[in-house]
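Example for tutorial group B:
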C-alpha cells in the first residue's frame, strides 16, 4: 500500500479517551492519522506514527495548522470532531451556570467543529469522505445540570443533519458513544465511582463499523451499531 493510497483521518481531542482509542485502532489498521490535543507529551509513545499537532481547537491558528497537516498528507478520508468541553464541574443548573463557561462550551463543541469542517470540506469532497461528530445522549434528553453541554451537542446534531443534506456525497454522522470511563465523564460525576462504565476502547468497533459500512447519514448510537454487528 503506497502512502497516497492509504486512508487518512483527522481526529480532534485525541489526547485521551475515545479520540485516543480510535486513533490507535486506525493506525493499527493501516490508516495515516493526524491528531490534536492540548496535552501531547505522551502521544509520541501512545500513537507512534501519528502526526501530532498540539493546541486548542477553538483557536483559528491551531485549526489552520491541523488543516495544513492534513493537506500535507495529500488526502483526507475521515474527520472526527471529538474534542469537547463539559463546562464547570460539578455541573451547575442553568440558573447558576456562568455565561463565560457556556461560551467556552459552545466555542469548543459547536463553532470549532463547524470551522474545521469548513476548512476541510474540499479534501473530504475529493475523497467522498466521512465526518463523525461525537455527540451525547444529553443532546436529546433533559438532565439537570447538563444544560450547557447538552444544548451544545443538540446544536452539533443539527449542524450534522444540515451538513448531510447539503453534502450528499459525504457520509455524515452525529454519534452518541454512550457512557464511557473517561476523564470527562468522571468530571460530570465528581467523587462517584464510574468503574462500571465501559472503557472507550469498547466503543471503537462500533465506530469502525460505521466508517466501513456508510449507512444513511444521521444520528446514530454506538450501542445500536454494536448490536447490529453481533
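The residue assignment follows.
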Amino acid at each position: 500500500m503506497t502512502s497516497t493510497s492509504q486512508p487518512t483521518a483527522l481526529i480532534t481531542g485525541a489526547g485521551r479517551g475515545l479520540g485516543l482509542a480510535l486513533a490507535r485502532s486506525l493506525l493499527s489498521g493501516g490508516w495515516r492519522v493526524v491528531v490534536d490535543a492540548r496535552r501531547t507529551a505522551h502521544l509520541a509513545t501512545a500513537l507512534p506514527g501519528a502526526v501530532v499537532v498540539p493546541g486548542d481547537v477553538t483557536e483559528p491558528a491551531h485549526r489552520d495548522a491541523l488543516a495544513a497537516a492534513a493537506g500535507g498528507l495529500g488526502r483526507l478520508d475521515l474527520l472526527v470532531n471529538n474534542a469537547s468541553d463539559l463546562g464547570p464541574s460539578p455541573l451547575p443548573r442553568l440558573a447558576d451556570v456562568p455565561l463565560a463557561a457556556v461560551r467556552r462550551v459552545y466555542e469548543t463543541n459547536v463553532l470549532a467543529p463547524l470551522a474545521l469542517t469548513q476548512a476541510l470540506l474540499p479534501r473530504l469532497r475529493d475523497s467522498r469522505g466521512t465526518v463523525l461528530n461525537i455527540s451525547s445522549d444529553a443532546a436529546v434528553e433533559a438532565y439537570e445540570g447538563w444544560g450547557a453541554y447538552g444544548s451544545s451537542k443538540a446544536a452539533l446534531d443539527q449542524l450534522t443533519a444540515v451538513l448531510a443534506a447539503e453534502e450528499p456525497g459525504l457520509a455524515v454522522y452525529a454519534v452518541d458513544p454512550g457512557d464511557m470511563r473517561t476523564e470527562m465523564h468522571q468530571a460530570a460525576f465528581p467523587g462517584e465511582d464510574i468503574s462500571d462504565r465501559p472503557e472507550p476502547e469498547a466503543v471503537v468497533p462500533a465506530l469502525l463499523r460505521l466508517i466501513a459500512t456508510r449507512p444513511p447519514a444521521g444520528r446514530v448510537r454506538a450501542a445500536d451499531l454494536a448490536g447490529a454487528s453481533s
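DSSP finds eight helices and seven strands in the chain. Compare this with the pattern of hydrophobic and polar residues in the output above.
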